[in-house]
Amino acid sequence: MPEGHTLHRLAADHLRRFGGRPVRVSSPQGKFADSAALLDGAVLRSAEAHGKHLFLGFGPLGWVHVHLGLFGKVRQGPAPAPPPTDTVRLRLTGPGGWSDLRGPTACALLDDTEKAAIHARLGPDPLRPEDDGEAAWARISRSRVSLAVLLMDQKVVAGVGNVYRAEVLFRHGIDPLLPGRDLDRATWDAIWADLVLLMREGVRLGRIDTVRPEHTPEAMGRAPRVDDHGGEVYVYRRAGQPCLVCGTEVSRGELGGRNLFWCGGCQGHRG
Fold it and tell me: Which of 3, 48, 167, 232 is catalytic?
């Protein structure tokens, strides 16, 4: 499932391609056909993201809400658009190019009240300028649940997925199974600031890189990582390989149905 930086990048891409101009809207697959007909020819006025949710604003006509889920994909390109396939749920076209949405968990036209309800159930997003870590800390500091679970709970922090979860815990030397209430405030503030930094870089680069300058392939004289989930990382999907910092073999387990990666040397793990 794409992490939050991907949705913020998509919001910026859609605004760049279509913002402030009339947009042709269609649904070759047919599942969004009624809403597409209503929006066709309307002006895209805004685009924003909150966590893993994308919102495309068409003024009084409402908001197209997209949640990619596990299988959703967006493809974009310059004009002219290629012929659409019948698997495209939503197609946008205009002078600035085209955008095709396939296989999302959600694609619906919402009014302001319905959009606000989605925001209300999400935690703060490190990529939203108006958000900070206060609301997340209020929940984390009272919780017996492990930090590894809390960071993946979109009601606590919106936009963090398995990669950012694994990497930010490693970067701060935190046992993934540490209960939230055992974390001190200064460390939480450092984690939040790090998420802001890392996820902004994810938007800028279009991939997830989390290693510090001294641990890059160039600095360490090692081969670059090759993986379709992102760039240079410390522990995510590196199980069985030596930690880039201490050399301990990176471990993998399962928590809440998701893979968990950590370094027992740098973070510890009470298993």
Answer: 3
